[in-house]
Amino acid sequence: MRGTLFDKVWQAHLVRRLPNGQSQIFIGLHLIHEVTTPQAFDMLRARGLRVAMAERTIGTVDHIVPTRDQRRPFLDVMAEDMLSALERNCREHGIRLLGIESGQQGIVHVIGPELGLTQPGMTIACGDSHTSTHGAFGSVAFGIGTSQVRDVLASQCLAMEPLKVRRISVNGCLARGVYAKDVILEIIRRLGVQGGAGFAYEYAGSALDRMSMDERMTICNMSIEGGARVGYVNPDQTTFDYLRGRQFAPQGDAFERAVRWWSSMASDRHASYDDEVVLDAASIRPNVTWGINPGQSIAVDEKLPASADPEALAFMGFRAGQPVKGTRIDVAFVGSCTNARLSDLREAARIVSGHRVSPHVKALVVPGSQAVRAAAEREGLDRVFSDAGFEWRGAGCSMCLAMNPDRLEGREVCASSSNRNFKGRQGSPTGRTLLMSPAMVAAAAIAGEVVDVREFAPAEMAYGD
Ligand code: SF4
């Protein structure tokens, strides 16, 4: 035992060592959605198996839902079929499904935390790469494929290899206009998109200590983009305050007992790590990706490196040595499980307020969940966005991956608060994605091009000392 949270959670959930050297790990929470489950349920059915622990399984619908008109049946027959299959499977196996009509639907990585399902010390699995988001609460959470979804449905366990642990400490204060999104883009840029292979990332340091749960979720969400299957933050008072009173969190005395156990799962003061990286928060600037993976980013006031990947340059239409600032955009997207929580929408709204979206830009805001949407509407954020010319949509994954009607067309350039800028990710094989913080997306929407949010809206910046 190295005394890290990862090791403690692993040991607490270890069922047995398998003859092939892998570990059988118990999964505390299995989150399911419409895309990676139909085949898994079919495989269960083919073997005459039932879901082992329906009470530890919870479903929602996010990837394929239209965000403009969510009335059933959906116009897209395939999307309707997928949701119907999930509904049927959940009914048959007694699984709680938070569907469109529930008022609690949303992106799986947004609703888990906001409902208090995600808790420290847990193991969490979901058929989506960005399950690492839940690590913000001090859980060990990872994405799985369809055959593993089947395994968890059938046994509530997975066969896995343990991971090494790299502590990444971000110390000091973030400058004005620099957000959690910039921190994780900076980490991925420095360590590489494969740098985390075989590691769990433990995020620490005084900058992380000060972050809200929403910000920690943004950081952990993109661990997978740095090659780390798992990313986590040790649970602390911020974690406990967030969870208190949430629907699925322990209540009353049970909550206090849970806090004691959750606290014990945090990494020990003298825990040993396989690797350590330290970053100075003050050195981080607003980041923008210029390429075709999330590691290909620069600070907004930098120029593209001379060594820039020629394939990425050609695809994106950039030249080495040119700035990314000033790039004309066609679409602005505030959404996704990385940056569609209430605090993200608030930051974007602060920039947008009193301005108009540039005439050549299509801009949309897609809340991460129905609860986020309702909370934003209570604050009047929907009116701020609508008055500025943004489309205010229903909850879903939307343009993060375009398995729904929200897609880029042709060579459009999208300023996006999502997490992946792979070729074709946003629906058009030739579409181009520039990842950045929601505040930067909002500023780009107004300006019609990539701008430095620190210059564009200096009075509206949230951070800074
Ligand atoms: S928002 Fe994007 S990354 Fe997140 S769950 Fe949906 S498709 Fe996956």
Report what the structure shows.
The protein is of the alpha/beta class and 465 residues long. 32% of the residues lie in helices and 17% in strands. It is built from 16 helices and 19 strands. The protein has helices at 5-13, 38-46, 77-93, 108-114, 146-155, 180-191, 206-210, 213-221, 237-243, 253-265, 310-316, 342-352, 370-378, 381-388, 438-447, 453-456; strands at 14-17, 23-26, 29-32, 57-60, 96-98, 123-126, 140-143, 157-160, 164-171, 199-204, 230-233, 275-280, 287-289, 297-299, 331-334, 362-365, 391-392, 413-416, 432-435. The chain has a five-stranded parallel beta sheet. Helix 2 (38-46) packs across helix 5 (146-155) and helix 12 (342-352) packs across helix 14. The longest helix is centred in the N-terminal third of the chain and has 17 residues, at 77-93. The protein is globular. The relative contact order is 0.14. The model has no long low-confidence stretch (mean pLDDT 97). The protein binds iron/sulfur cluster (SF4). Iron/sulfur cluster binds at residues 62-63, 107-109, 128, 130, 336-337, 397, 400-401, 419. Iron/sulfur cluster is lined by residues 62-63, 107-109, 128, 130, 336-337, 397, 400-401, 419.
